[in-house]
Amino acid sequence: MPKEKILVVDDEKNIVELVKYNLEKEGYEVLTAYDGIQAVERARLDKPDLVILDIMLPGQGGLEVCRILRKETRIPIIMATAKGEEIDKILGLELGADDYVTKPFSPRELVARVKAVLRRTSAKAEEKDELIFDQLSVNLIKHEIHVRGKEVDLKPKEFDLLKLLSTNPGKVFTREFLLEQLWGYDYLGDTRTVDVHMRRLRQKIEKEPSSPRFLKTVHGIGYKFQYEEKD
């Protein structure tokens, strides 16, 4: 079985070497980059299984690298941010990062986060044919939706929107990301397209569209799928 590849991106070579040493001890193949431009090139060329990405980088900042990679790939990303840079953590997660660590971090903590993110993304890759959330079921193979036992007809983009959100429960997606991911980079519409489809989707699957149980608005950012089992 081939080793999982981790791309480590940081302009501080001592940090790169420390992270590389500890990841290789765990059996990972480690790739390295020292600036944002090199990071994007290596990610495109070598297709790593995960990227550890520092926010403060020469060439292109880590947030810009995250934005580029998230547009082009689904490679999981762990952002590294300096202590106290709360806004950078928030922005990184909004742009599609899967997790973050705060510098200075312990190698043990970083390795644990790498393993956790890879487990989550591996499980997602082996996604089930059908997702069931109480009275809502989403058949990913047949493209069928049932709400309270009745089949609901969704338009293709409505289904794509529901699929993306429901296979990433709890993850917040910006309107811009949803627009680019589902409609394409060259689409001439604006983010209101996402809002219109979300409104229609809520009307079809939510018992109370004005107070949705599943499709939540994250004000000022976008949307997420939330599921909590009722007692």
Number of separate structural domains: 2
Which structural class is indicated by helix and strand composition? alpha/beta
- Level of helix content? 40-55%
Q: Percent of residues in beta strands?
A: 15-25%
What does the overall shape look like?
Answer: elongated
Number of strands: 12
Report what the structure shows.
The protein is α/β, with parallel strands linked by helices. It has two domains: about 5-125, 3-Layer(aba) Sandwich (Rossmann fold); about 130-225, Orthogonal Bundle (Arc Repressor Mutant, subunit A). Helix content is about 40%, strand content about 20%. The protein has eight helices and twelve strands. The protein has helices spanning about 15-25, 35-45, 60-70, 85-95, 105-125, 155-165, 175-185, 190-205, and strands at about 5-10, 30-35, 50-55, 75-80, 100-105, 130-135, 135-140, 145, 150, 175, 215-220, 220-225. The strands form three sheets. The protein has a five-stranded parallel β-sheet, with helices on both faces. It has a four-stranded antiparallel β-sheet with strand order 6-7-8-9, with helices on one face. Strand 6 (about 130-135) and strand 7 form a beta hairpin.
Quick rundown:
With 231 residues, the protein is of the alpha/beta class.
